[in-house]
UniProtKB/TrEMBL annotation:
It is a multi-pass membrane protein. Its EC number is 2.7.8.15. Keywords: Endoplasmic reticulum, Glycosyltransferase, Magnesium, Membrane, Metal-binding, Transferase, Transmembrane, Transmembrane helix. It is found in: Endoplasmic reticulum membrane. It catalyses: a di-trans,poly-cis-dolichyl phosphate + UDP-N-acetyl-alpha-D-glucosamine = an N-acetyl-alpha-D-glucosaminyl-diphospho-di-trans,poly-cis-dolichol + UMP. This is UDP-N-acetylglucosamine--dolichyl-phosphate N-acetylglucosaminephosphotransferase. Its cofactor is Mg(2+). One of its GO terms (biological process) is aerobic respiration. GO terms for cellular component: UDP-N-acetylglucosamine transferase complex. It is an enzyme of class 2 (transferase). CDD domains: GT_GPT_euk. Belongs to the glycosyltransferase 4 family. GO terms for molecular function: glycosyltransferase activity; metal ion binding; UDP-N-acetylglucosamine-dolichyl-phosphate N-acetylglucosaminephosphotransferase activity.
């Protein structure tokens, strides 16, 4: 079914674009804040993505970028890889925004600084060029390069369905430009030791050296893949990304609102990358929410995860980032027996749609031969803890178990439910975990560390 943009939507999008162009213009002529321009670009990115997703859907299907909506009675075919549309709009936005992000330095160095002749002479002789933050420009460009590489690898995955053990490591390649700039520019590999441990270790700062780079590479692997495996019901991939992105933005605003905070620049950098991301994601969400009209594809999951990894690593708040990924961390650990093939892992682990009731039920992983004793023991313990459902034959041997995903666990716990109810429930959990995560970061961290770095 071909989608169309209604007149109402067209007028609304036109108004949004007009207002956003106005915002950008005021920044351009009035030496305004780059953040306002970023907001303007995000609105334009939202509108462009909204229209392009509608207009390009059929073309994507024609070239084979499509997938069946498994949890619907008619299993209709929908355009897939719509994340690629969002990612391209986003990257273009970030490239056009580049001069705005560094506008203030051009103003000081060239005209508009109030002393045109003097500064121009300074630039020509190179004396004032040291004021330009080349390191920040390097960070910005490397972030774009990492995201761009991730998007290309994501599209390759959507096209060729790369094997799990291979695609798990794709993000490491994409992360290299960003890690390289981190090494050259910031290079801090110390972590603050909790107060209670400082006495034993004998230092307040522990240098993890190359271990810190391994840790950052692990974050770059984890963020994209963890979103890709908390997936498979309408709207869940984009919804979780919007929630995580919004909470990182709230955390950034907390720092920026403290006047003269030393981390202001890092958090501004994070907001420049997050606001347009939220813009394109909201547009995608509109089309992907239940009942979906398009699928996001692996491209979106990788693009979203990599955006978070980039801002977390280059913004120097990767540990706070992990506090916002608690459901994803749980899902990853819970999935591990299937990911590492200790328990059979079917191609799709999303819940099973019951066409008669219209509800989602836990999907099952069938054992071809009886599980080894220690696997059976672990599954038995998980069953006692109500963390899994198992099906046995007459002899009591385990034949099947519910697939080890948070989505299935939600349905095992609360019973069969409609697809959108499951997404809403899980996203409620994501919001609750994020609120607790930020409270832990800014309140409970004081119990373990000497001070919260929100204060200066
Ligand atoms: C990951 C999961 C897999 C899950 C799939 C769903 C692991 C190891 N892999 O695989 O279990 O089934 O994501 O995205 O956990 N689809 C729907 N409804 C939706 C979203 C997707 O039916 O709301 C189906 C469509 O047929 C779509 C396909 O899932 O074409 C996309 O799957 P894909 O992203 O290729 O799966 P993986 O990322 O490999
Ligand atoms: Mg996927």
């Amino acid at each position: 079914m071909t989608q169309k943009i209604t007149t109402g939507w067209f007028i609304s999008l036109f108004t949004i674009v007009g207002a956003c162009l106005g915002l950008i213009w005021t920044v351009f002529i009035g030496d305004g804040e780059p953040l306002i321009a970023s907001l303007g670009f995000s609105g334009i990115a939202f509108s462009a993505s909204y229209c392009l997703i509608v207009w390009l859907g059929d073309s994507f299907k024609r070239v084979g970028l499509k997938g069946k909506d498994i949890s619907k009675a008619d299993r209709r075919e929908l355009p897939e890889t719509m994340g690629a549309v969002c990612a391209v709009v986003y990257l273009m936005c970030m490239i056009v925004f580049l001069p705005f992000a560094f506008y203030e330095y051009f103003v000081i160095l060239t005209s508009g600084g109030g002393n045109r002749d003097a500064t121009i002479e300074g630039v020509e002789t190179g004396r004032l060029l040291h004021r330009f933050p080349h390191n920040k420009l390097g960070e910005y460009l490397s972030a774009i390069l990492s995201l761009q590489s991730m998007v290309i690898l994501g599209v390759a995955d959507d096209l060729f369905d790369i094997r799990w053990r291979h695609k798990l490591f794709l993000p490491v390649i994409a992360a290299i430009p960003m890690l390289m700039v981190y090494y050259v520019d910031f290079g801090v590999t110390n972590i603050v030791v909790p107060t209670s441990l400082q006495e034993y270790i004998g230092t307040a700062l522990l240098d993890l050296s190359w271990g810190y780079y391994l840790y950052m590479a692990a974050i770059a692997i984890f963020c994209p893949n963890s979103i890709n495996i908390l997936a498979g019901i309408n709207g869940i991939e984009v919804s979780q990304s919007i929630i995580i992105g919004s909470f990182i933005a709230i955390n950034d605003l907390l720092y920026i609102s403290v006047e003269g905070h030393p981390a202001t620049d890092s958090h501004l950098f994070s907001l420049y990358f997050l606001l347009p991301f939220l813009g394109v994601s909201l547009a995608l969400w509109w089309h992907n929410w239940y009942p979906s009209k398009v699928f996001v594809g692996d491209t979106y999951c990788y693009f979203a995860g990599m955006t978070f990894a980039v801002v977390g690593i280059l913004g120097h708040f990767s540990k706070t980032l992990l506090l916002l990924f608690v459901p994803q961390i749980f899902n990853f650990i819970y999935s591990a027996p299937q990911l590492f093939r200790l328990v059979p892992c079917p191609r799709h682990r999303l819940p099973k749609f019951n066409a008669r009731s219209g509800l989602m039920e836990p999907s099952r992983a069938p054992f071809e031969k009886p599980p080894k004793w220690y696997i059976a023991l672990i599954l038995g313990i998980l069953e006692k803890l109500r963390l899994i459902r198992v099906w046995r034959n007459k002899e009591g041997v385990i034949m099947e178990c519910s697939n080890l995903t948070l989505i299935n666990l939600w349905i095992v716990t609360f019973g069969p439910m409609r697809e959108d109810k499951a997404t809403m429930g899980l996203m409620g959990l994501q919001i609750a975990c994020s609120i607790i995560g930020l409270l832990i970061r800014h309140k409970a961290a004081l119990l373990v560390f000497p001070h919260d770095n929100l204060s200066i």
